[in-house]
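Postdoc handover notes: sequence design on the structure in folder B. Input tokens:
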């Protein structure tokens, strides 16, 4: 992907994990970018862990989307980035509260 674009996506680690698992199952012979490990943490560490994980997942997606179009246009990737009713509800809720990015994170692709 040559152009810079920005995507807002749910911030559940399990969503990213499922994408990674689906891609590895669909393309077992390909080498994928390293996937961030799950981190166990206490309540006092939530903010720092979330920030670190967001950066790692951003890097994972940037590397993933620079792969061959067979991967980037595959069903698992397209399903991962599709807009759901939950996304629409979150966006409407965020606009109503004027909270930018609440419950979401921004992923920048180059």
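Designed sequence:
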């Amino acid at each position: 992907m040559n152009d810079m674009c920005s995507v807002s996506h749910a911030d559940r680690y399990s969503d990213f994990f499922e994408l990674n698992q689906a891609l590895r199952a669909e393309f077992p012979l390909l080498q994928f970018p390293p996937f961030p490990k799950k981190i166990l943490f206490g309540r006092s560490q939530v903010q720092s862990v979330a920030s670190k994980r967001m950066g790692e997942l951003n890097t994972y997606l940037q590397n993933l989307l620079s792969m061959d179009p067979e991967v980037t246009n595959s069903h698992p990737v397209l399903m991962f980035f599709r807009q759901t009713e939950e996304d629409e509800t979150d966006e409407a809720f965020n606009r109503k509260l004027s909270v930018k990015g609440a419950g979401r994170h921004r992923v920048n692709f180059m």
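Context for whoever picks this up: Confidence is low (pLDDT under 50) at residues 1-6, 98-106. Don't rerun without checking with the PI first.
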